Model the fold of this input.
Amino acid sequence: MNFYFYSTSFFFRGVYMKWCLRILLGFLFPLLVDYTPDAKFYKVEAILRPWRIQQVSSALLKMGIRGVTVSDVRGFGAQGGSTERHGGSEFSEDKFVAKVKMEIVVSKDQVETVVDKIIEEARTGEIGDGKIFLIPVSDVIRVRTGERGEKAERMTGGRADMSATALT
Done:
C-alpha cells in the first residue's frame, strides 16, 4: 500500500513539474529571446493622418521606394474618435477618425530606413500621428512574369525604365 502511494505521488509530481515548466517557459521564452520572425521581406503598414501622406510618399520616392499602396481607412485609438458640429450643436455619429493606410513591401535591409523616414515625415508630436506595423512576408511574386523573391520585389518595367531604355 505504501509503495503504491509513493509511486503515484512521484508520478503526479512529475506531471505537475512538467506542466509548471511548460507554463514558465511559455511566459519566459519570449522575454529571453528577441522574437522577430526571420524573413527576406517585410510589409510596412502605416496608419497615418491623411494630410501627411503626400509628404511621406514624396520622401519614400526620393529614397527609391516606388511600390506603395494607399487606402482610406477609419478607426480610433488613443484619440478616442472625434465629435462633429452641425447646426451649432456637437454630436458624435460614430467614434471613427479618417486615416490613411500606407502599405509597402521592402527587403529586410530597407525596413529600418523606411520606418525612420515615415516617422520623420509623419510625426507632429501629437496624439493621432498613427502607428506602424511590420509584418514578415514569406515571398513576393510578380503576376505578369511569375518572378519570385528579389526579382519580383524590385520595381522594374515601369514608365521610368521604359523611358530610360528608349533614350539609350
About this structure: The chain has a mean pLDDT of 78. Strands lie at 41-48, 69-75, 84-86, 89-91, 97-107, 130-137. The chain is about 40% helix and 25% strand.
